[in-house]
Structures are given as C-alpha cells and as structure tokens.
Amino acid sequence: MITEILEALQASGGSASVRELSARLGVDADALLGMLEFLAHKGRLRREPWGGTCLMAEQGHVPPACRICPLRSMCHLADAPLGVVYTVVPPSSREGGD
Amino acid sequence: MIANVALQPSTFKVDYGRDIEREIRNLAERIAAHPTLSQRYNPRWLAIKLLEGEDDLIQRVALEPDGNSILEHAAESRRRIQRLYHDSPDILIADRRYGFISGLTRQVMQRPAQDRLTLTDRIDQIAASRWLGIPIFLAMMYILFELVVNVSSPFLDWVDAVFTGPITRWTLLALRAFSAPDWLQSLAVEGIIAGVGGIMTFLPGLIILYIFLAVLEDSGYMARAAFVMDKTMRIFGLHGKAFIPMILGFGCNVPAVYATRTMENYRDRLLTALLIPFMSCSARLPVYVVFGLAFFPKRVSLLIWGLYTLGIFSALATSFVAQKLFLKNMPPSLFVLELPPYRLPTWRSIWIHTWEHTREFVTKAGTIILIISIILWILLNMPWGVQTPHDSWFGYLSGAIAPAFQPLGFGTWEASGALISGFVAKEVVVSTMSQIYVGTEAEQLSTAGSLREDVDIIVGGFLRAVAESIRRLVDMFPGVHVDSGSGEEGEPSLVVALRSAFTPPAALAFVVFVLLYVPCMATVAAIRQEFGGRWALFSIGYQLTIAWMLAFLAYHVAMWLG
Q1: Assembly ipTM
Q2: Between 1.10.40.50, 3.30.1330.40, 1.10.287.1770, 3.40.50.1980, what CATH number should domain B18-108 receive?
Q3: In this structure, which long-range contacts are made by residues B473-481, counting pairs with CB atoms below 8 Å and at least 24 apart in sequence?
Q4: CB-based contact, B98 to chain A, within 8 Å
Q5: Exposed end of chain A (fewer CB within 10 Å): N or C?
Q6: pLDDT tens, residue by residue, B407-435
C-alpha cells in the first residue's frame, strides 16, 4: 500500500490531495489519512502545517527584516493555515537511515 | 454479570508474504519454546512485534532469562528482511496490514460512489482539477480586483476629498491661529498631509482586499489556490515546496523569503528566494490602482490582473531557465496535502481579520510613512530656501538617475524619485508622488470654507460613496445596470495630476517596473540574512535588469499599438 501511495504520487506529478489520492487508490480518505499519520510516525513522511504563519513568527520572534518593514500589516496571507502537508522523506534524509 | 466463558484465541492471520512469514515462524518457534514468554504472549503476535521493533516489548523480553538471545534472533531477522526488500520490516508489515484492511473493506462494504462524495469533493472536482483549477484561480483573482476597484473607488475619492479639504483646512487654520511659521505650514500640508493622506486614500481598497482575502481564506479556497499553483509551478521545474513561500509572497515578500527555510536543499531555497520578489505583494496594489484610474479607467481590474499574472510568469520563466542551466537532475519532492473542507466564512472571523490588518496599516501609515514623508519633505526643501523641488537634494539625486528611465518613457526626476523612495516600501511610491505632484504650496491654500461644507464633504460624501459603491457592486452582475444618480464623479487629486506627467505607454511601463524591481529594503535584508550579501546584491541587480527590460518592452509595444 505504501508503495502504491508513492507510485500514485509520482503519477500525479509529485503532489496530490488526500482526496485525489484516495480516489486514485480506491481507499477511503480517512483510512488513507491513518496510513499517512502512521508513515509520519515512522519518519517516512514529514508532517507539517501548510501555509501557516511565518516560520520565525511562529517561533515567537519578529524576523529582523520585518522590524524595519513599514508594511507588516501586508503579511496577510501569512496568517492563513492552509492545511497539512505530508512530504515524502528521501532515504538519505531519514533519521538513522533505516 | 460476567459470563464465565473461556475465550478462544482467534485463528485469523494476516498473510505478510512468504519471506516475512518465514521469519515470523522461526521467531515464534523460539518464543514458544521459552517457558515464561510463551505463557504470557501469543508467540506469533510477539514475533511480529519484535520484528516491528516495538521498544516496550523489546525491553520486557530483555528482562527475561535467555531473552537477549531471542532479541538477537529478532534483530538478525530484521536485517535479513531489510536486505531482501530494501525497506524496514515495520513498514513492510504495516504495508501488508493496510493492504489487507483495504481489500477487506472493499469486499465487505458497498457504498454508492455518489454517497462517498461530500460537497467539498464535488466542489474540488472542479475548483482543484488539473485543467480547470488554474482558469478558476485566475478568474477569482480577476473578480477580487474588480471588487477592489469598483467597490473601493468611490471611497477612495471620498478619503481624498476629506484629506485635501477639511483636514488640510483645519490644520492650516490651527497653525495660522498660533502664527506658525511658513515652513511648519508647508511641512504639515505638503509633507505630512500629502504623504500620509496620499497613502491613506487607498485604505478603502485595501480594506476590500482584506475582506475578500479573509473570505477566500476562511472558505478554504485559498488552500486550493495554492494547490493548483503548485501543479503549474512543477511544470516549470520549481521545487514542489516552493509554492508555499511563493503564495506567501502575494501577501508580503519578507515572510515569504523566511518561509524558504522549509526547503531542505540550499539551491532550491536560493532559487525560490530570488523568485519571490516577482510575486506582487499587496503593497504594490495602490500604485497599480492610482495609475489604472488615471490612464486605464475602464480596464483597471484587467491591468491589475495582468500585472499579477506577469509577475507569476516572470518567476516561472526565470525558474525554467535556471532549472535548465543550473539545477539539472534535482529529484522532485513528493507530497500529499490534506486540504481543509469548504465552509461558510463567519462574519466574526472576517471582521477580526479585516480589523487587525486595517488597524496595523493605519498605525504604520501614522508612524513609518509619516517619518518617511517628513524626511522626503526635508530632502525636497534642502538646501534651505530652494525655489523648486527640482533643485532640491532629492530632485538632484532623482534627476541624476532619470536618464536611465528615458527609454522607458518616464525619464523625469519626479518618477525616478518615486522609484527611489519605493525602495523603502512600495506604497511609499504613492505617497512620494502625492508629495511631489499634489503637495500644493501651503501659503497658496485658502482656509475659506464653512463648517457646513466640511460636514457635507465628510458625512454627505461618505453616504454618496456608499450609494455609489453599492451601485457599482450591483452593476458588476451581468445584465444589470443601475444609473448613476448625479453622473458626476470626483477623482483623487493624484490621479488627475498624473495624467499631465505621464503618457499612457509610459504609465504602463512605470507600473511594470514597479511590479518587477526590488520590492523593498526589508526583502533585501531578509535575502541578505538568509543567503548573504552577495546574493542580496545579485537579487537587486537581477530584479532591476528584468524590470528595465520588460518595462522597455511594455512601453514600446504600447507605443506601437497606439
């Protein structure tokens, strides 16, 4: 199934939504999410909030360049959490490398 | 009541495949021979858990006599499986398990396809589809700009009238009542009111933008927009994760540059950071609006839409060339997105979003843009007593670089000066132009006018703006037309002033240049911090070159088309 997930991802051009992938694999979307969570737990996928706030702001401090920016109010899109992204971790980047 | 029934162990087994089953069998036999472990656990279950590397069970087995030899056996089995399948046993076992579950549910559950599709699925079949996703995204952008321009422009005229009318009059009255010197009156009217007022004029447009973005964001469409953008970016060879910072760039380029940190590869990060300035941040919008209203009043939305699209395609073209020349054979990243379901935005959420951003914008206009306006006024009046702004320090500096823009049709010191100050922040371009083109000599201004007239401008003007805004909103629906009551429409003073300073082709070249040249010093500082001074300088040089070339092209094509 995991191999099928990766193959389906390749076939979709590298990225797919959970719903697209579940339709392609014929697996229920909730079941697929369970698999993705399992793979994230095992270090095969990296689970990250997508969009979300600016990374530095998320860590609790204003980016240095923003301190001199007169238009910080324009960071509007940076406020929006857009979902969750599961990125396939290449074997060379895995902890312990299996 | 608890029944005294002996539970029979299940005979059901998931088949993990020949090789893994052999390892499970061998290990289970060792466990079955162990006096304590065989009593406590089902040998097959424990064997599978040990192959999966369950820490808790490994620790328990290690405490048993002869437990370590079972663990060594399990470790050897894991290594054999790993060698055979080039993957770890826990993943292979889970793979088989999920495969079994999936197959079982397919056999025992039958749900009509129609039932499985939620409303979100049905909308996504269109909004996030491979072929319709991008046209819908571009159409949404167009509608956004139509709303910004049509709904906000009556308010834009109203804010301009309030600043150039009552606020200017009251300020002068107060200053003259205290016998303030001429220079102070000039600073207040030509510097502060022209500068801050110039940019505050565009606040209604930004508020409409904030409202619409909040609706898109809360409804869940923004996530789809980013998703379909990603698919296009991949065609042009961009790293899959580049779309997150690129989309953020539409809001502000600075956090977008920092967001490249999510990318592992330095070259991908660098390329993305160098492309981000092409994404038109919302600070550039007031410049497009003022030039659109001045020169292309019937096609303002189309102009803004075209500029945003040009920015995207400039970034994609740069990426395509860079990938072909420098970044060959980079493996694509693979990822799955869990998109939030569509939902109806709440009024409260839209209000909070809009209010917070509006408040921050007003605060900044009242602080940083105020300071810049004062500095610019000083530079426009130095050396002290200078007769015309052209002879000022700012005029001298701007005039020195103006010839570089001559081939683009706007080689004047005023236009060059606005571009210089735009390096601080893009909508300072508008406040600078307001100071240069509109900042009427304070001593020439009359304080004549009654309180009644002022109230009419403030209250009556607002009500007329609301009515006109509603009329335009209704007019946007195909086949619906509502006549304008008076037929008279005021125009912001800067819009009128620009018509005598630019030709339409020069105006087009100017907005193209503003779109593509260095976004602001904060973005350059962010690139410098993330990638070093050398790349920050390269970014400045590259942006200026592309901006000049495309503005040149835009000017000459517009001239050719007449």
Answers
A1: 0.75
A2: 1.10.287.1770
A3: B473/B147, B473/B150, B473/B151, B475/B150, B476/B146, B476/B147, B476/B150
A4: yes
A5: C
A6: 999 888 889 988 988 887 787 788 788 87
